[in-house]
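Could you join me in thinking about how sequence relates to backbone shape in a protein? Label the sequence line and the structure token line clearly, so we can match residues to local backbone shapes. Once you have written the record down, we can walk along the chain together.
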Amino acid sequence: MARILVPTDFSEQADYALKLAHQLALEMNAEIELLHVLDVPGGDRYAGMENISFTGEATGNEGMNDIYFYKLMEKTREKLLDVMSRPELQGIKMFEKIQTGSIYRQIYEETQAGHVDLIVMGTTGTSNWEEDLVGSNAEKVVRRAKCPVLTVRKEVKLTQIKNIVFASDFKDKHEKLVSLVKKMVEIIGATLHLVKINTPSHFENDKINYANIRNYAEEHKIEDYDLHVYNFEDEEDGIISFTEQFGMDMIIMATKGRRGFARLLEGSIAEDVVNYSKIPVLTFHV
């Protein structure tokens, strides 16, 4: 059985992600792991202690901290169970998990264990200069996760997703990415749009672009698609502009997960799209 990881901070965006994950789980015969990460002082001290009940008397500051932690744990678990008991979220297997530390590190460790097939998470996107500098949690997860990541900013039903954009240069050959594209199109029942953003710095004439995309589709046995070459100043803004102009409902694209100095020099198209897109974005680390 497939497993979908849904991180939650009980926000509106997290709820949007959970609702969409539930619809996907029904179609995929998958289970959902609902993860909440507690950001508490000295969180490493409580690692692995999520299922312990506190009894006895507090002694000193450390004892008071323990009481606070266990009370917070109990309250958090109650909130998770309340969410899972909602009538509209029934029909699938769902279980809760509570960890401590940073949200994106815990999500990364969950995927490293190899038990997660898809992450669905809410994002508020980038709205100020500080997030531009440090990056949102969703951006960090997209950069490092070893499984597909679907980010959601607004509430959307699976039945509302009619048009899916697969944005690529159609030069790299990643069989797992293409398999993901095919699977999502099949699950959702949407029209697939193969889109190449043609920029001044990497300009190619339409004849070459269309031929490359058709060859890519034929080689990977992609059928029933619409083909587009869209001229724009840069790739990330071009993808956003295309989806808005033509009323697309979801974006699928690869990310190379650049970090450190390489990311500062070259940036990441996928992470920028995740930050600014108003529609769901499904990324896959290649």
